[in-house]
Amino acid sequence: MGRTGGHPGSHLGDGVTGRQGEQLVPVPRLVGWFAGFTRDVALHADELSALDGAIGDADHGTNLNRGCREALRTLHAEPPRTVGDFGRTVGMQLLAHVGGASGVLYGSFFLDFGASAPGAQGLTPRGFAAAWHAGVAAVVARGRAEVGDKTMLDVLAPVRDALDTAAWHTVDLGGMLKAALDAAEQGLEATVPLVARKGRASYIGPRSAGHQDPGARSSWLLVRAATTTLAG
Amino acid sequence: MKKLINSPETVVADSLRGLAIAHRELSVDVGKRVVVRGDAPVPGKVGILSGGGSGHEPLHVGYVGRGMLDAACPGEIFTSPSPQQILEATRRVDGGRGVLHIVKNYTGDVMNFEMAGDLARARGIEVRAVTVGDDVANDGLTTAGRRGVGATVLVEKICGAAAERRWPLARVADLGNRVIANARSMGIALTSCTVPSARRPTFTLGEDEMEVGIGMHGETGRFRHKLVPAREVAAILLDRVLADMPLEPGEQVLAFVNGMGATPLMELYIVLDEVARLLDARGLTLQRTLTGTYMAALDMAGCSLTVLRLDEEMTSLWDAPVATPALTWGTV
């Protein structure tokens, strides 16, 4: 899955050669983003598992924490040179070590995030939006979920749309990410009243309402980590 | 909650090392999380593979052996195995006739097996998958589909026997789907289970309550009910199972009363006795039974009931010899 045409990011070819003055997020900073996410997942692991316990099987924090640690270890042992390397390393490690639906979904997200600019040594703000687009498309393809099903997509998709919209108005990554975080927070809150239609939470039907979705919350952490690490 | 473990992080690996010592006839790769028949791959035989989260033992690792599974892929507790893990097991049991993946219908299991199937096919291994969804507690319309529960054990046994008879892959897969189409299950819990890493029960039940329609992961059920005697529990479960799969008087069934991990066999026999009486009252013939803890939800107390409508071929395959850690009969 490459990038999807027809949105702002697709104007920029490999996502690196941005217009004059555009910030470039180099690959090591993407690693920093993932390190920040890993740290936040570790800090919030119990909370993620507790949310999962309310509507699922109480292991989301544990699983994601284990997988992120493995992925970060590999990123440090074999530092990626390109966006593609970054996405492949993170994606394969998450696939192998998170397990469950989250492993496949986050793994697919990063594999296709990287594949959107495989040879690039960094991402422009619009390149980042395009990579996010590709990652979300992979999540949709594997999970076959829709917005409103009470899943991580309820955060990932609004963030995609916010990044796209922001990319029309600004080339300032900090500004784009702020819009993204706002969208993530709204999407996260919106999962609370929803009745789950996908994943293990769907088995308890109406009783899933009133609880925040743990996958949406970990996705919110991913966006929040981006705001604190990427804009530099 | 007390647990007899070293640490939550090492539960699966520590347990697999014990399995390897207890069952030297199996090939246990603790690092890759793959348990394989000692003589795999068996040339000319379809490989039968299943896998899923750990915590349901003996499912699936306890069913590796002649007449049942060629390989099992245990994931973390209640967490599906990874695509890489399933691919590794698939490669090790491909005897040239292809490999059947028996998948329980959970979002994570289905996705990981799909991805593994894609990877295996890209390497030239023929793979078919059957997805078990037998739990009548959910309708499958507003959810991620019916969960795979007790029928999984029956599918593994019957497909394993067919593969042993050298049936080709497509026919074994069709058989698996036939077993799935003719099996229904429902379960109740008297207590929740405790996931080792979470340290506390996933849900709480009062002394006078039971949870009806539970899954095998400590996910809560469809509704709470006051605790009633085994007789009424059997009726609640059987009524719902047969409402979903109406049977005509004279039909032959297998009844599988499964313990969820912490319920004594003695109590399971009490439930079986009630189930047998109720089946008899409906004019159904109880042809075969399976009673015991064959698919647990860690330390949950409770049981599930699975009814399989039998035909002659299924019965013959059920009776065929099997030699695994948890299920053994006949002369293999």
UniProtKB/TrEMBL annotation, chain B:
The keyword Nucleotidyltransferase does not apply. Keywords: Kinase, Transferase. Its EC number is 2.7.1.121. The keyword Lipid biosynthesis does not apply. Residues 7-327 form the DhaK domain. It comes from the Bacteria. InterPro entries: DhaK_1 (IPR012736), DhaK_dom (IPR004006), Dihydroxyacetone_Kinase (IPR050861). GO terms for molecular function: phosphoenolpyruvate-glycerone phosphotransferase activity. This is Dihydroxyacetone kinase subunit DhaK. It comes from Actinacidiphila epipremni. The gene is dhaK.
